[in-house]
Design brief:
The complex is a heterodimer of chains A (418) and B (88). Chain A is globular, with a radius of gyration of 22 Å. By secondary structure, chain A is of the alpha/beta class. Chain A starts with 5 loop residues before the first helix and ends in a 16-residue tail after the last helix. Chain B contains 1 helix and 6 strands. In chain B, the strands form 2 sheets. Chain B has a 4-stranded antiparallel beta sheet with strand order 3-4-5-6, with no helix packed on it. In chain B, strands 1-2 form a two-stranded antiparallel sheet. Chain B has a single domain, classed as Folate-binding superfamily (Folate-binding fold), CATH 3.30.2270. By secondary structure, chain B is mainly beta. The longest helix of chain B is centred in the middle third of the chain and has 8 residues. The chains are: A alpha/beta (418), B mainly beta (88). Chains A and B meet through helix 7, strand 12 and strand 15 of A and strand 3 and helix 1 of B.
Chain lengths: 418, 88
């Protein structure tokens, strides 16, 4: 594999950049693999990468129905954070933060990781108390957290509404300075390029039509491009997990929902951190191109449509304008929707299943993108060693049976009670 | 915007409704032995079908009645609606 470097960039300039190697091959499926990963999004690509890198398993195929990184990997709002209170979430996410910091070097691909900080705004004394508690829990787990008062918040985001007559005045906020954003496509491409170079087959336009399960063990997978014999399958298909679970006669604690995001026209730099509204569900950051990137609530009903309705968008943007009134002057450039795996307690699942050789990675709710490296790393471990890692112990499928829910914010599918 | 025909009030916009989830989920019967798995299926596990999906909505800004709706989860087309006690 050609290394990406300043020297290679100059060298290739002489040939008009016509002689770069392809970043990855468009593979055709072989008859048999050691491991098949279903889903060519961030989590699937990262899983394949860490299977090859950490566990030396390279006879691996990634099967993707559409194109690489074309699902939620290309539809998220690129936020990376580990501001969780519960140990299971905090330690998993902070492990991921370390991988994010090293990712561009590790992958030899600039993922434009930008640790610009995230601020969760508080709009009451009670909310400040809750944030103080969360901040303390974060610090006990080695995660940076700073409780900001109103004045300190105003220094960072003076464009927010600090006037006296607002419905939800800003009392302060909880900041994680090391949180940030990254270029989502670059993450997918970086993982794909490295996985491919280590021998992983990336097979696009290949739909899974069924599974061969004999005596409770995985024997193979049937696809639109032929049958593949394989003993271990990893499902990384957030948004379509219910569809594949049905083919496996499983019902899982996940519903598929629609989540929208939008960007405004590009404007000059105005916002250098990620900010979330504390009195509703709205968050905002500014991309390197200058667009204000925004998102919020689910549309609220089961959907596979990948496109949303205007009432939810209006609701979300009303909150945005309440928080930052200047947004009302901007024009909307694009809106889009993605389909989410909404787990019943708002936390993901990375676990083995009752079928031997079938591993499940799903239920990422609003937070799949930031988990990409940690999810891939722990899922690769779970598949390679046939046992969960300490980091993903809490993300078990059985927790719904045993009552050990990870209800970090009480956000699951039932947005109407949150 | 979805337009939902409330069986009590007629055609109304989605803004007036609140979603209540899968309408085919049945609560385990009272006064019978119920296994953990049955409870688990009732409380947490969902099929979340792609295509025709029977679901509950509440006409929260209207008559406040719970209703049943059959809707396509891929296209958002609504096929029919019924009162909560009726089959759909």
């Amino acid at each position: 594999m050609q290394k990406y470097s300043i020297f290679n960039l100059i060298k290739n300039a002489f040939s008009g950049h016509q002689k770069w190697d392809l970043a990855w091959k468009d593979a055709t499926p072989k008859k048999e693999y050691d491991v098949v990963i279903i889903g060519g999004g961030g989590h699937g690509l990262a899983t394949a990468y860490y299977l090859a890198k950490e566990h030396n398993i390279t006879n691996v195929a990634i099967i993707e129905k559409g194109w690489l990184g074309g699902g939620n990997m290309g539809r998220n709002t690129t936020i990376i954070r580990s501001n969780y209170m519960h140990d299971d979430n905090a330690l998993f996410s902070e492990f991921g933060m370390d991988l994010w910091r090293k990712m561009s070097q590790d992958l030899n691909y600039n993922v434009m990781f930008s640790p610009r900080g995230i601020i969760n705004l508080a709009h009451s004394d009670a909310q400040m108390n809750v944030f103080a508690r969360r901040g303390n829990s974060m610090r006990l787990n080695g995660i940076d957290a700073v409780l900001l008062n109103r004045k300190e918040v105003k220094e960072i985001i003076p464009m927010a509404d600090f006037s006296d007559n607002v419905r939800f005045p800003i009392f302060g906020g909880l900041m994680q300075p090391s949180a940030g954003t990254a270029r989502h496509d670059a993450v997918a491409w970086g993982y794909a390029r490295q996985a491919d170079s280590m021998g992983v087959d990336i097979i696009q336009n290949c739909e899974v039509t069924g599974f061969d399960v004999v005596g409770g063990k995985i024997q193979g997978v049937r696809t639109s491009r032929g049958d593949i014999k394989v003993k271990k399958i990893g499902l990384c298909v957030a948004g379509s997990t219910n569809i594949l679970a049905e083919k496996l006669n499983m019902t899982i604690p996940v519903e598929t929902h629609l989540l929208q995001a939008c960007v405004t026209e590009p404007v000059k730099p105005v916002l250098d951190s990620v900010v979330t509204f504390g009195a509703g569900h709205f968050y905002i950051s500014q991309s390197d191109k200058g667009e204000m990137v925004m998102g919020g609530d689910l549309d609220g009903y089961n959907s596979y449509a990948q496109r949303g309705n205007l009432p939810t968008l209006q609701h979300v943007l009303t909150e945005g304008i309440a928080m930052m009134p200047f947004l009302s002057k901007l024009k909307m450039l694009r809106t889009w929707g993605g389909i989410m795996d909404m787990s019943m307690d708002g936390s993901p699942i990375i676990d083995k299943t009752h079928i031997e050789g079938l591993y499940l990675n799903c239920g990422w709710c609003y937070g799949g993108f930031k988990a990409t490296p940690a999810s891939g790393w722990t899922f690769a471990h779970t598949i390679a060693q046939d046992r969960v890692h300490k980091l993903n112990e809490g993300y078990s499928l059985s927790r719904f049976n045993t009552g050990h829910l990870l209800d970090e914010k009480g956000l699951g599918t039932k947005t109407w009670i949150s | 915007m979805l337009h939902i025909k409330c069986p009590h009030c007629g055609m109304r916009s989605q803004n007036e409704f609140s979603y209540g989830g899968d309408a085919t989920v049945k609560r385990p019967e009272l006064n019978k032995e119920v296994s953990d798995q049955d409870w688990n299926n009732f409380v947490y596990n969902r099929k979340s079908l792609r295509g025709k999906h029977k679901e509950l909505w509440q006409h929260i800004s209207g008559c406040r009645q719970w209703i049943k709706v059959e809707r396509d989860t891929a296209t958002h087309e609504i096929f029919k609606t019924a009162k909560a006690h009726e089959d759909i």
